[in-house]
Amino acid sequence: MTTTETTATGQRDDLPSDVAGWLELDRQYRIPGRYDISQVLVRGEGVRVWDADGKEYIDFESGQVCTSTGHCHPAYTQAIIDQAKTLVQTGSGYTSPARVKLAKKLAEIMPGNLERSYFACTGSEATEVALRLAKLYTGRSEIVSLQRGYHGMTHASLSVTGLGGKFKAIPGSGLLGNVFIPAPYAYRNPFPGAAEGDDMDFFRQGMETINWTSTGKPAAIILEVVMSVGGMIVPSKAYVQAVRKWCDETGALMIIDEAQSGVGRTGKWFAIEHFDVVPDIITTSKSLGGGIPLCGVTTTREIAERAAELGFHQSSSHTDDPFLAAVGLAHVEILENEGLVQNAADEGGYLKNALEGFRDRYDIVGDVRGLGMMLGIEIVTDKASKTASPLHATAISQYCRDNGLLLGHRPTGAVSGNVIRILPPLTLNREESDQALAILEAAIQHAQKSVEITEADGTGWMK
Ligand SMILES: Cc1ncc(COP(=O)(O)O)c(C=O)c1O
After folding, report:
1. Which fold would CATH assign to domain 75-337?
2. What is the mean predicted confidence (pLDDT) over 95-122?
3. In a mutational test of the pocket of ligand 1, which residue from 61, 119, 229 has the highest number of ligand atoms less than 8 Å from its CB?
4. What is the pLDDT confidence band of residue 38, given thresholds at 50, 70 and 90?
5. Which of 195, 245, 344, 458 is 20 to 30 A from 101 via CA?
6. Which atom of ligand 1 is nearest the CA belonging to 228?
7. CA–CA separation, 281 vs 297, rounded Å?
8. For the segment 81-102, what is each residue's pLDDT rounded down to a tens digit?
9. 17-37+48-59+340-462 CATH
10. Which of 119, 150, 316, 318 for mutating ligand 1's site (highest number of atoms within 8 Å of CB)?
């Protein structure tokens, strides 16, 4: 089906009016290679989105983990309109009140003495900037990162990303001098004799790897303290504190990537606060802008000033854009004014409690992890064997999608990981939680009953 649409500038075009039509047109004009796209979303409001057929969904992924204040929050939309009418863009040689106010606000909510910020557009860009800053400041080149960590898809950010397969499917090498250490994945602990939840053997193994494969004095370590894409893995406080101590001893900078976990999502402004540690650099992006492309790199005055003396030069066409900064500031203010960081803690706690109930009731729910509204459930064939089951996970996310709930797991038809991620807007209320949980529980029951695993399915990749 097609309809005639008139654009904002008065041009007319015959365009599709349903999901099938848009998908067909999309295929004509797309370089394939992202996901197996099967959804066409046209509108969002609060925790809900609607597709081109008019079907309604609860969005438990917050767009791509960006829309913390919900889709099209009225004050957020108003801030976009106001700044669009005032000043959208300036050259890199200028500053603006919007930029200054956002940097000041970040300095207020960041832990410790992190007070100097640089702004640009994406999480990948933030990683690039943080790595360059660390290399310049320390005069060193090696970087340590974690297997399963995700830091972006530009050259350096992909080089420090610890996800293989399709993520690394490019000819040629990444950056040299990167050392990967194991993720602190306590649920699947291969070290003999470790107590439940103890992840310190992973730390010791990591130190061993660094010492055998590098100078032992790298420029930095970069990590997420809630490893989202890698399977919603949360290190222990002891692990994160040991990383800080190691940084102090070796002179490596501690970079915490808070693209997803930052700006309220875990029930504190920054996830690192759960660990009583102050890093040297925090990167922010998705949850900073609330949907518009804004990222930040924030560090101490000492590091910023020393790097400047050493010639730090970082710029892109959209560095510090007033439009991005003003909307980002409005996003942070809405979170503050409406108590949404506390809601992430409270309603996230309610969700986690319910998910733990699912774990107790269903054999295919092996583990529940996460902080605030950054939660994951690990799906297995059965609790006793802990065999990872992407097939069950796919059946769950497919069922949820068919029944109006979008999760952080893509039912592509192919197997795509066995951890289902739950990242709703921080505006989520009890009624919306209960509605989503009812769909999810029915999906788990459906998967447990209907999915049959045969040897040919090869689900034991992570046993
Ligand atoms: C922790 C983390 N860092 C960096 C990135 C990259 O951000 P972007 O996709 O905006 O480049 C992501 C994106 O998912 C992320 O989750």
Report:
1. Aspartate Aminotransferase; domain 2 (3.40.640)
2. 98
3. 229
4. confident
5. 344
6. 16
7. 7
8. 999 999 999 998 999 999 999 9
9. 3.90.1150.10
10. 150
